[in-house]
């Protein structure tokens, strides 16, 4: 798909090379995943774990996931290309077949003969799509013959999201954000102190980022990567690693992570030598933290409880609130968040963040520090929260962040001293997740 006025980055080779040998079942699974992601939050993960998917051989499952993710990332562009070919859209099951086929040919570079012939077979197997079998064939062959034509990355953003980001970050900012979501992002690793970033980078064929994270274009099951079993690193986007670094805990300090699961930031605090208490309301999400603590040999006290219900009276030197949010900053990795999030959720989650910030403030010792962060690009979940919090809590003052010291892009620093990390930053390196983070100190 050509991008108007820009040179697209090469698409990451996320689909198995042997896509031509992968059959109809994997394509059906890709359609199921795509539709589940479009219909409901967590639909993608739930469907990945469902019997329909877990009974597939591993290469088929990986292909189905990669195809659905590619379709989700480029959905607007794919629909632009398709809509030029109809006077009226065919029914949804036909659209699903076409979207899955185009995700293969245009994004994953699956051989056209394999994508087209399996699409026609899919149409034959579905009673609602069967009457459109010839249309599926003709449309896909037509696109193969004529090329996709020009598309715009902005088309991949739901209208309400595009309107919000344009208001918050301007027209060029919106274009850059849209572009940042087109390709599968690399994977970042955070290293335990003492690990040599150059060694880890060599082992995973990656590069060392400013701040010390290692970035790799490697794909597939992380548990099979060299060094995983040794526990010297964990997967964490470079932007997600910045908030815990901002808290700058010292060995022997007490630290509270109020919304800890699945635990990347808890691991950072523990690795820095703090005595960490990690709370989360979700016991099932905390299982990943437990597994990561075990693998890395790090220690934290882990408690499954809503932060507001935790009754122990302790206060801490350092408190981290990585609050539940719309997660719109993670659309590079989780393109489904943009489809699953509803506009009303922004205000609803902002209320939860407001409440949790007050809970967090009570847990900070006089002289202690508080970091608030969210992986959202919505100002209501970032800047607006902190403006209101500082008004409600005059004992707290912002401490200006030093982006270089926490591994964040320099341009992320706001005039107030907060970090507003945008996925379009570090574009030449493959971008970063979107994060907001603010460091505050309690003066009395
Ligand atoms: C953004 S995620 C945290 C990610 C985590 N800090 C990390 O780095 O891996 C937000 C977490 O908040 C938890 N949560 C939501 N409401 C909560 C509450 N009232 N008390 C404690 N945890 C809560 C959710 O279960 C979720 O795991």
Tell me what the structure shows:
- This protein is 44% helix and 14% strand.
- The strands form 3 sheets. Strands 7, 8, 9, 10, 11, 12, 13 and 14 form an 8-stranded mixed sheet that branches. Strands 4-5-3-6 form a 4-stranded antiparallel sheet, covered by helices on one side.
- The longest helix is centred in the middle third of the chain and has 22 residues, at 159-180.
- Residues 2-17 have low confidence and may be disordered.
- The chain is of the alpha/beta class.
- It starts with a strand and ends with a strand.
- Helix 13 links the parallel strand 8 (275-280) and strand 9.
- It binds S-adenosylmethionine.
- S-adenosylmethionine (SAM) is lined by residues 258-265, 279-282, 285, 306-308, 322, 324.
> What are the segments in which pLDDT stays under 50 over at least 5 consecutive residues?
2-17
Count every helix, treating DSSP H or I runs of 4 or more residues as helices. 17
Largest sheet: 8 strands, mixed
Q: What overall form do the CA principal axes indicate? A: globular
Q: Examine the coordinates and then state which fold CATH places here, giving the name of the CATH topology of the largest domain.
A: Rossmann fold
CATH domain class of the largest domain: Alpha Beta
Q: How many separate domains? A: 3
Structural class: alpha/beta
CATH architecture of the largest domain: 3-Layer(aba) Sandwich
CATH homologous superfamily of the largest domain - what is it? Vaccinia Virus protein VP39
